[in-house]
Amino acid sequence: MKGRVILSVVFAVVSVSACRNNPGKAGEFVLADSDSLSAFSSSDLMTNEDVIRSFSAPLETANLFQVMGEPFTQEYLASSIDANRLGGSFEKALWLGILGADLGYMNVYGKTGTSMDLLASIKKLAEDLRVGQFFDFETIKRLSLNNSRLDSLLYLSIDSYNKIDKYLREDNRSQLSSLMIIGAWIEAQYFATQVMKTSPDDLLRDRIGEQKLFLADLIKLAEPYCNSDDQFGQLCKDLRDIFSKYETVKITYTQGEPVKSEKDDGLLITQTESSRVEMTDQQLGEIIDIMGMVRNKLISRN
Q1: Cβ(177)–Cβ(90) below 8 Å
Q2: How many domains are contained in the chain?
Q3: Taking the model in full, what pTM does it have?
């Protein structure tokens, strides 16, 4: 049951505050108007493994769509991507992340029975990148058709992605792992902003605003490769352009006291926290616009 990376990168609209706060005591962590990328010290830099862990609640936004009563929208999918088109590893890694997010979106809405073409594209890209050995496509197909529990598949996906990341790093191709994460984030954030544009919702608005933190980490993740070639240079510019629209978004996280409860004859300690996002309608509109522009540019290169 390996190969569930494609779900680990679905809907990356998650809070990474757990990586920023001291879990041992209550307090506040504030990103104010004056914050910029230069304000993030080297201690804030996340490795690929850290980023993977911050996908710990990727179904949060998908579930939010369901609660909102938001219908499945075929037009959101990156259907213009042609996995058979000649291209380099840069494009293929980005596309693999993007299509992985698409498949997750379809899975959440129970559209897996019509996702076989998408699975074929993911298989082709994975094989071209020489990571196909980490994908058990027969199992993926079976689980998709059976609408298996996504929370169980999530655990398997994170484990598989860690193996892929480790393999790519040992093979001196860690930039491809970063590209997969970036592609998935862009696609997931595109979904969120498109839904926000058509069906405004306060909670979804906050989830979009909270991506200021995660985006800063993605940029740090990409920075070692920004000068490697023109493609990576343009992608880094795109990410920084998106961040510029977040520049004056203010986020306040308040860490709560741990909650203790009994579970399976043991003690379960749950960390509690709350967040507040201050983002104007103009800021939100600019974020929606630039996410659509960057994402559509990436998939139109086919």
Answers
A1: no
A2: 1
A3: 0.80
